[in-house]
Amino acid sequence: MKQTTWRSAAVAVIAGATLAVPSQGAAAAPPSDPISPPHDSAVSMTEAMRRDLHLSDAQVQVRLRMEAAATPIAERLRSALGQRYAGAWVDGTELLVGVTRAADAAAVRAAGATPRVVTRSERQLNATKSALDSVAADAADAVRTWYVDPVTNTVVVAATSRSAGLAFVRGSTADPDEVTVRVTTETPRPVFDIRGGDQYAIGAGTLCSVGFAVAGGFVTAGHCGGAGAPTRGFNNVDQGTVAESVFPGNDYGWVRTNGSWASQPWVNNYAGGNVLVAGSGEAVQGSSVCRSGRTTGWRCGTITAKNVTVNYAQGAVVGLVRSSACAQPGDSGGAVISGNQAQGVTSGTTGNCDAGGNFFYQPITPILQRYGLSLTTTAGDSSRIVSNWHNKCIDVPNWNFSDGQRLIVWNCTDGTNQRWEFVGGTLRTQNNKCMDVAWGSTADGAAIQIATCSGNPAQQFVLSGAGDLVNPQANKCVDIKDWDPNNDAVLQLWTCNGGANQKWRRG
Q: Is residue 302 within 8 Å of residue 66, measured between CB atoms?
């Protein structure tokens, strides 16, 4: 049986980091420029997706809009279908949802997705994977990963030989009929000395990366360092202490910062700016994600598997997500984001950004739940929603917060009638009023108004990474009617077309 302690595993990780950067020898960069971007990293999210996913700019915009709508649709169907739900995944620009009963296909279509009738439910396959997880300590080194795959409706075991994969399955209580064994040449390994937003140093040995800011500190990869280790920021100023850390089993931890550091809802985009973090909605399998790391900058791919158990040399890590993006030593712990939704922190890789490969990340929700942390986001802020076209703001005219009041754009002010807060997928203003599509319509031209908040699908809106304010029920955008450039121009629902009169930002 394979047995490792955190300390012995961590020593093995650090000792094997041939590309590690000794923290004592790291030059401190000025606060205005924490770390100069590495070669080939100064690209925006759109440019990175175009390069790595081979998409046109228009295809990137369509994909981001669709993926922003996919997450709430999948979650509603999971809740409504219960044991008959069999997972969701994105195929190109289509959201597919598995169901175990043909009679549920109509409900899936009505929600805006394409149904696939399959044999096994998500819960059934999760139970099969749990049976494999229970014998993870006995897995041979030839067994690389295992995960629930909604596309094949099986649990996939990846091993260097079919015989090794089958032997692993036979050593558990899992039903072999529910398992697909795939042969792989990949060898997952943890990635070291990384940054998500800003670089930080642990003790005197390793440089790592901020994953995402939380109240009182930030989350990062567990294999970066153990509890109690002191940390320094990008400018070599004392920053804090590793509060808690786990590796293997999981690969996460968090740093408690001192009073000299303030948490911000930002991720370095390696293009001279920041990506705002609005929340932590879990992206559907097949969705695009982008990863930020100090070695290779912004790299984008798609989610290819969820709930993956990776059998690192130091021991198995459960609950990871695999993406087709590349990563290299120096990228570990970095932020993984889909649109404006935090997804997790980089854990390991199977290749590099020259020859290709996949990387694995630790989802952020279990980290926040384990330590009782609160993600720092823009979503808790009451702020304006500004048109990228002419810099006017969405406005409740004359502070009239009556049900049915149609929304307009107006020159931006500090007025509370221009303040909006994302709450549970709704956009809320004063007096418990929410942005709303009149009569729950999905038709082009439907009025955008305010109404008493109820959380119904007509009041669900997502501000995508592409700047589209999307109503997932209709999969259409909030639009300035008739390209009217004036104050008092009204808002309507319209098919998303990438026009500047449909582009918005928080401000």
A: no
Cβ atoms < 10 Å from Cβ of 268: 27
- What does the DSSP assignment read for 1-40? -----HHHHHHHHHHT-TT---GGGPPPPPTTSSSPPPTT
- Identify the H or E element spanning 126: helix 122-133
Radius of gyration for the alpha carbons in the chain, expressed in angstroms and rounded: 23
Q: 223 an active-site residue? A: yes
Mind listing the pLDDT tens digit for each residue in 272-285? 777 888 888 889 99
Longest dimension (CA), the chain: 72
Backbone angles phi, psi at 53, to 5 degrees: -105, 0
Cα 20 to the center of its chain, rounded Å: 26
Rounded to 10 degrees, the C-alpha dihedral 478/481/485/487 comes to -80
Q: Which of 104, 251, 436, 479 is catalytic?
A: 251
Q: Give the tens place of pLDDT for each residue, 345-372.
A: 999 999 999 988 999 999 999 998 888 8
Q: Which of 223, 287, 323, 468 is catalytic?
A: 223
Residue 110: its H or E element? helix 105-111
How does DSSP assign 318-374, residue by residue?
A: EEEEEESS---TT-TT-EEEETTEEEEEEEEESSBTTTB--EEEEEHHHHHHHHT--
Active site residue 251: yes
125 Cβ neighbours under 8 A, 6+ residues apart: 86, 87, 148, 150, 153, 154, 155, 178
Structure tokens belonging to residue 356: 């290709």
Q: If we measure between CA atoms, which residue out of 269, 294, 267 comes closest to residue 194?
A: 294
* DSSP assigned state of 281: P
Q: HEC string of 408-470? A: EEEECCCCHHHCEEEECCEEEECCCEEEEEHHHCCCCCCEEEEEECCCCHHHCCEECCCCEEE
The pLDDT tens digits of the residues spanning 378-433 come to 755 567 899 999 999 999 998 899 999 999 999 998 788 898 887 767 888 877 78
Q: Rounded distance, CA 392 to CA 403, Å? A: 23
Distances (CA, A) of 127 to 121, 134, 484: 10, 11, 55
Q: Check if the beta carbon of residue 494 is closer than 8 Å to that of residue 501.
A: no
Q: DSSP label at 280?
A: -
Distance CA 283, CA 300 (A): 14
Does residue 332 carry a catalytic annotation? yes
Residue in 41, 332, 347, 464 annotated catalytic: 332
